[in-house]
Amino acid sequence: MPIHLVWFRNDLRIHDNLALAAACRNSKARVLALFIATPGQWRLHNMAPRQAWFIQQHVDMLQASLAAKGIPLRVLAAHDFAACAGVIKTYCADNDVDALFYNYQYELNERRRDAAVEKALGGKVLCQGFDDSVLLAPGSITTGNHTMYKIFTPFSKAFLHRLREETPMRLPAPQARESGAVKAPAHCRFDYPQQEVDAQLFPVGEMAALYRLRQFCRHAAKDYLAQRNFPALNGTSLLSAYLTVGVLSPRQCLHGLLAEHPGALEGDSGAVWLNQLIWREFYRHLLTYNPALCCHRSFIDWTEKVKWRNNTKALRAWQEGYTGYPIIDAAMRQLNATGWMHNRLRMVAASFLVKDLLIDWREGERYFISRLVDGDLAANNGGWQWSASTGTDASPWFRIFNPTTQGLRFDEQGDFIRYWVPELNVVPGKAVHEPWRWAEKNGYRLDYPRPIVEHKQARAAALAAYQAARTNKEKAV
User: Fold this and answer.
1) Is the entire prediction scored with pTM above 0.70?
2) Tens digits of residue pLDDT in 101-125
3) Do residues 11 and 133 lie in contact, with contact meaning Cβ atoms separated by under 8 Å?
4) What is the CA radius of gyration of the chain?
């Protein structure tokens, strides 16, 4: 009897899991499953305690789901990725494993880990990997010169063309093994700090994630364009955390959307949310072909010459939500309190750190990943480099968000701001965006700081810093 091992990583589901489906295809095979916790690596990568908790819950639930199918999931620990090869080699030898099945991860350290595992197994165990966390495999969407696209729009057009030609299949959960259900192994607690996630924000479970997907596609996707930028509205899908740890697959998202909005591929209803899925793909493909992005390098070389300020006090004010700019502070307090931040506000908060405070974008990237339950290297790095104008398809370096204008535009009456910055509840209407002006006019003493920078002056300083870096690059050439 062949013995197949499924190595679970960021694919914590039984439905539409390519590696699991492949391992179960032979009905006569005995199927085992393994998850390896790597707390040392997680610390190195600044994983958020909320994300660790979210993973722990879904590993526990996956154990139960697999046990009902007759597949025991063993949870083991290794200090870091380098130790994984030895753990898997020993497990395969102890259990006479013939074949190892896993879904690819595209980050540099993860790819090195997988290469080390295959080398350690020395050809004695057949290794099969799958492009499970993407709709289309990296390398399948390239320019006419067979290179990776550097601009999103042509990538998106080529991507949509491929999807129209052939929509990737969505696979059902595997059938129960002939041997019947097994007892789930004892839960293994991760040796890593954990912080519980609000169940209203991200309820735990594969079924909960699928239900949220159906509800969003059925009721909210049609209004996504109109509502997605307003943080006081429930206008986003709130599916990001499930996609990050693999409780949902992108194929499930695509099929769920097309079931309710069949014209999405042609630009009709649902197309704007589909575009968000394609952005996710773009950053994953880009990471695969530019591994330096995993090493804190800017995509645009000359931006490495920008002279950033080392301002610990300002960085802390931004992190804690006390900058004196209400929309920035509300966004950061939402992040700190929940482990999630509205997508529009991620851009605004990032722009403020980089372009107003002139603090290195890598400080923000690191802080976000240390707090986000949906923290994902490709998306987080892509978003930060977009905001900092250091990355591919970046906003022009001279385009700088005005935080007050952004607040007025997307939270006009300050409903979102007052929820997260309650000390401003006394400030009426639009005045909440510049509360110090209202306070001075009305002789009121607010328990809220004045702006730590003046935007007009900060903008001029940022433009000068970027221009100097660009000029130095041109002189070097």
Assistant:
1) yes
2) 999 999 999 999 999 999 999 999 9
3) yes
4) 24
